[in-house]
Structures are given as C-alpha cells and as structure tokens.
Design brief:
Elements (H helix, E strand, L loop, with lengths): L7 E6 L3 H12 L4 E5 L12 E2 L1 H10 L3 H7 L1 E2 L2 E6 L2 E6 L13 E2 L2 H14 L3 E4 L1 E8 L4 E7 L4 E11 L7 H4 L4 E5 L4 E10 L7 E7 L2 E7 L5 E7 L10 H12 L4 E11 L2 E5 L3 E2 L2 E3 L5 E2 L6 H20 L9 H24 L5 H11 L38 E4 L2 E4 H4 L6 E4 L14 E4 L2 E2 L6 E5 L5 E6 L3 H17 L2
This protein binds flavin-adenine dinucleotide (FAD).
Amino acid sequence: MFERDPSVDVLVVGAGPAGLALAADLARYGVRCRVVESRPEPRPGARCPNMWRRTLYALGRLGLPSHTLRAQGVPMRSKVFHVAGRTAHISLLEDPDDPQWPLPLLIRQDHQEKLLSLLAARNGCRVQRGVTARVVAREEDCVRVELRARDGGTEQLRAAWLVAADGGDSSLREAAGFDWRVRRHEGISWWQVDTGFEGVELPPEREDLFHAPYRHVGMVPLAGGGHRTFLASATEDGTGTPAYADVERLAREVIGAATRLRHPRFLWWQTPREGRADSWRRGRVLLLGDAARVFPMPVHGLNTGVQDAANLAWKLAAVVLRQAETALLDTYETERRQVAEGLMTRGERVLYAGVSPDPEETLGPILDEGTPRVRTEPPVTYDAEPLTLRPRGSGQHSCAGGWAAPCRVHTPDGVCTVAALQTGGQWLVLSPAKTPLSVAHPLNPRLVTGAQLSCGDRPTIAVIRPDGYMGAEFPYRTGRPAERAVLAYLDRAAAGA
Ligand SMILES: Cc1cc2nc3c(=O)[nH]c(=O)nc-3n(C[C@H](O)[C@H](O)[C@H](O)COP(=O)(O)OP(=O)(O)OC[C@H]3O[C@@H](n4cnc5c(N)ncnc54)[C@H](O)[C@@H]3O)c2cc1C
C-alpha cells in the first residue's frame, strides 16, 4: 500500500488550515511537498468562520478564486455590541474602494479546510488523511518520520524539512525537543455551539455581542442559516461538561430575553489557555499555527495560522529551491512571533473585559471610539531588517514593512492592485521609470516599469515580498543606481541577514 522510501522536500503534518495553506503554497512554487493528517475527514463544525482581509488575500494568492470563497460564505459588515441597554455599531468596512475584499467573510472552518485540501491537491501536493506521523530521528540533512495508516500499515519517510502543523496539542513538538509553556485562565469557561435562535432578533451580515456582568454571548451568522455562537463566563463551574440546556440558560441570562436554541450542534468547551513554544525552528523541524502558539481566547488561531503559513511558505520554498540561505527561515519566527505576542496581550485583555463585573465601565471607552480596534484583525507591520528596509531619513513616511497587497498601482495598462500583479506568488519590483531596470536575481522578481503605488506621496521604487508586504522602498532613481539598490536589498533578503 505504501511506497518504500519516498523522500520529500517538505512533510507537513496536520491538515488544519495552517498546514494546508502552507502545503498549497509550497506546491505552487514547485516544492515536493506532502501532507499527512490523522483524521479521515475534516473536523465538522463552524469553529472559526471569520476570515479577515489579510487571510482572504493570502488565500487568493494561493489560487483560491474569490468567487469560490464568496459562494460558501456571507460577508460581515459590522459588529454590534449590546452593553447595559446601549447598542454600539462598529463598521468593519476598512477600505470601501478595495475591489476584492472590502469586508471580512464568514465561512465555516470545515468548509474552509475542504477548499484548502482541494487547492493543495490541485497545486500538486498529496494530502493523505487517516495517517499519523511520528518523528523517529532528526538528522543534519533530514528528519526521519514513521507514518502509520488506520489499518496499521506503516511507512518510513525521509523529509528534508518537517513542518509540525499538528495543532495546539502537538505531539511532534515535544518529540522534536521544543519546550511548551501553557497558562490556563482558570475560573473562565468558554463554550461554543453552532445554533439557530428564537426569541431574539439577529439581523444578517453582522456579529451581535451581548454583555452582562461576568459573561457575554457572541453570535456570528453562518451561510445557510444559524449562528456560530460563543459564550464566555466567569460564573459557571468550569469543571463539568455543559449541555445544550446550559447554553440556552446562559444565553437567556445574558440577553435578558426568552431565547431558545434551534437545532444546536457541535457543542465545544474549554478553559481558555495560552501556550507558546520556546522557539519555532529546531534544525529541520519548524512549528506552524497552533503548534507554535495558542491564544488566550480560541479565536485568531486560524487567521494568524494562515498568515504564518503565507510568511513561511516563500521563505521555505526559496531555501529548498536553493535561492536563499537557511538563515532566511529565522525571519519567520522573528516576524510572526511578534504578531503572536501582540495578540496574546490583546486577547487576554479582551478575554477579561468580556467577563468583567462592570461591562459598561470596561467597554464604554472602547465603544465610544467606534473603531474596530478589538476583536478584529490586528494591523501587522514588519519592522526588522534585513527584510524591511526603509530609505534613510524617511522615518515614519516610508511604507516599507506595511501590508501592500490591496494597494492600487498605476501602470501603463491601467490601475490594478499589488495582489493582481503577484498571482504567481513572486517578488515584485515596481519602478516609475519608463525604461526597464535590469534586476536579474536568484529570487526571480517580477519587474513592472512605469508603475507607481497610489499610497505614497512621491515617486518611489517599491520592492514587494511574495506575501504582499512591502520589503523596501527607495527614492525614485533610474539606471545603475536603482538596479544596485534593488539587487543589494534582494541579496540581503536571500542571505536572511
Ligand atoms: C471553538 C473554536 C472557535 C474558534 N474560533 C476562531 C475564530 O473565530 N478565529 C480564528 O482565527 N480562529 C478560531 N479558532 C481557532 C482555530 O480553529 C485554530 O486556531 C485552527 O484550527 C488552528 O489551525 P492549525 O492548522 O494550526 O491546527 P489544527 O486545525 O488544530 O490542525 C491540526 C491537525 O493536525 C492533525 N494531527 C495532530 N497530530 C497529528 C499527527 N501526529 N499526525 C498527523 N496528523 C496530526 C490533527 O488531527 C488536526 O487536524 C477557533 C477554535 C475553536 C476550537
């Protein structure tokens, strides 16, 4: 049934959203990649339906068409907070001119995983379900892994790189020698269920959050009806197993109406916990997604994981394809751990604000702002060299390090977005000059001449990374000085130092 010793460039363990997104990306770059997953089918249920804009752009870059995503989801226009008799509407329309994803989209996680599995397979990656991986040995040039199928058959595999995307309870993490620190938020119960509601009005395309002292309930609409509903409480005895009747009772207490659940399914509960691995790479083993960190609230994990994958994929592909040094991989942890740490801090604050004894006092100032500052996607920028390079003296004016995928670019052929110019996942050099620059480099950038980003206030040469973030921005110049500047930046990026 199994081949005897099929070496691969990258073995991804875990067909959750992070592992699948990485595999789909790697395969697109031509990396020989394989995914194994213990479960025969994706875990059912909505779990994380919220797909924020950066996640949607990341999936588009992998080749997942926006119409396919839209067909399975509903947009989310706003969050509506109900606190002590007050109702605050927070619009999620970040960029009304964004031609592709002006709003986040809601798609059940099991549907997302099915789409990603199909995409990974279509890009040329084998996704095997019902197969469990175990690390046998870590060697200098490979990792030896045993794969066990459900019928007991085994296969020994040599992978040049192993990506443990096996979730928060990762067994590979420990086997590969990573340290894992966990903190549980005792006294708080987090429940989640997919359900319809009777007795409370829940308009479409918005999330409703009801707050009461020590607890709150949030309802996120799902395509096809019903809501992904989560409840956090500091008053429940978190030791037992909740039933649907407990969910209904708690929802009634918080909402203050004779609410009834309709067709509840997939009840899930947890004492919130946060966890961090001490490092995200040991030799040839990399941690990805929840295996690397879990957040204090069971939210953000999917979106951050898909974006972690977008950050890692092009770096790992460049190393495997010998376009870059292994040191480039260290920038994955530097950049993404910083994002994770920010979300840990924010998540903890939001978790405790949601079970505060006086929600009006705790949430009032945030709601007064009317901006989506919490419970939304964080505005990530990358600041560290060598991948972010700002022109000397540009200070705060430089866009380098910022997310550029939805930015508009004026080109001789018309106006389009950075993302539209990057569909192959390549580096992009935008130059306002009419004559093409000569920037032949192992990282193989795509050069667009006569191009200018609309976000800057003066003409610049912009170098965009494959994940849609701006790496470097240089004052406009032509000829050799411009070429030298771009090539020197790409050399440093490829060296990872
Ligand atoms: C109730 C709930 C609500 C959530 N809501 C949100 C939200 O609103 N927003 C958000 O962004 N995130 C949310 N999340 C988090 C999100 O679901 C997770 O962060 C996400 O699934 C993590 O993705 P992953 O790919 O890292 O790991 P996982 O999805 O956990 O996938 C890991 C996979 O590895 C497999 N595996 C494990 N060990 C092995 C092995 N040895 N061999 C082979 N396969 C193995 C497992 O079967 C699993 O399928 C929610 C989670 C829950 C539970």
